[in-house]
Amino acid sequence: MQNRRSGPRHVISFPVRVDWKDENGKQLTEEGLTENVGPNGALVFLPRLLPEVGTSVKLTVTENPKDEVSVSAEVLRLERNAAHPQAALQVTRKLKVWKEKVWSYAAAVLDKEKPEVYEDW
User: Fold this and answer.
1) Which residue ranges of the chain lie beneath pLDDT 70?
2) Which of 23, 38, 73, 112 has the greatest number of CB atoms lying within 10 Å of its CB?
């Protein structure tokens, strides 16, 4: 299978909220966590509900409640693992905001982390 990623990923958990309408027009909301964040989207863990592939969603990163970041995205693929369901989302609107406030922020957070101390047994 061809890797279609358009850039590096930062493995980081940010709380998110995903809003969308189902095929009947019913408004749905699911909260979850990012698994990884890329320059054009994210892989998110959504514990109960998954939007269908191709669905347009509103993705809100709620890491900073005073400065939530909301973008439009499209569902590219789903991982329907019953224990850990995930949706791959590609940002379709506000990409510049995403890169500045989420992707770059993720890199800065990870840069500040100290590496784990390796203990030789």
Assistant:
1) 1-6, 121
2) 73
Instruction: Give the integer Cα–Cα distance in Å for 67 and 104.
Output: 15
**Domains of the chain, CATH where assigned:** 15-95 (2.30.110.10)
- Closest by Cα among 10, 9, 15, 11 to 33: 15
b/e map of 50-65 (b: 16 or more CB within 10 Å)?
A: bbeeebebebbbebee
CA atoms within 13 A on the CB side of 12: 23
∠ CA(50), CA(80), CA(9), 5° rounding?
Answer: 85
Map tokens 């309408």 to a residue. Answer: 21
